[in-house]
């Protein structure tokens, strides 16, 4: 008979069962990326317009990310950079973080994830980038 104790509560499932969440997220992301690669966001009518851009005329940090993803899927890094340079820098970091999550989950190591300060740094970067890409002098380099 198995007895549940403090040690049992901290043991995470290993293998495929332990890595189910990151693998499902990866599959959904891969399917979405394939869709964006096949359906060109540069053609009107396929995707909704950014609500912030529609309501205010201001670019958010995500404006141009679909077009940048489409360009990256077609290995056009320069085109992707012209749409959203921040996304071109963040996308590989997200992929590396996802791989680390899969490996950690597969080995049964449940962790606390990223420290809270990293979320605040990311928020600051996103807000700062959103402000900077709406500065008229920087628009040639940061606006999509």
Keyword list:
single chain; 144 residues; mainly alpha
Task: Briefly say what this structure is.
Helices cover 65% and strands 0% of the residues. It has nine helices and no strands. The radius of gyration is 19 Å and the shape is globular.
Task: Tell me about this structure.
It is a single chain. This protein is mainly alpha-helical. It has one domain.
- Return the average pLDDT rounded to an integer: 88
The biggest beta sheet, please? Answer: none
Helix-strand topology string: HHHHHHHHH
Q: Shape, please? A: globular
| Tally of contiguous helical segments | 9
Euclidean distance between termini CA atoms: 62 Å
Strand content is under 5%
Helical amount: 55-70%
Q: Return the domain count.
A: 1
Content-based structural category = mainly alpha
Low-pLDDT segments:
none
Our Rg estimate from Cα atoms comes to 19 Å
How many beta-strand segments? 0
């Amino acid at each position: 008979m198995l007895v549940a104790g403090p040690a049992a509560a901290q043991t995470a499932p290993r293998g495929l069962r332990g890595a189910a969440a990151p693998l499902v997220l990866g599959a959904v992301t891969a399917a979405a990326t394939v869709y964006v690669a096949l359906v060109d966001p540069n053609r009107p009518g396929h995707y909704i317009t950014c609500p912030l851009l529609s309501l205010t005329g201001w670019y958010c940090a995500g404006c141009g990310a679909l077009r940048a993803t489409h360009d990256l899927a077609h290995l056009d890094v320069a085109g992707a950079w012209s749409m959203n340079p921040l996304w071109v820098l963040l996308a590989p970091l997200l992929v590396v973080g996802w791989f680390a999550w899969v490996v950690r989950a597969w080995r049964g190591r449940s962790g606390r994830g990223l420290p809270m300060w990293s979320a605040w740094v990311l928020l600051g970067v996103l807000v700062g980038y959103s402000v900077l890409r709406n500065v008229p002098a920087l628009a040639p380099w940061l606006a999509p």
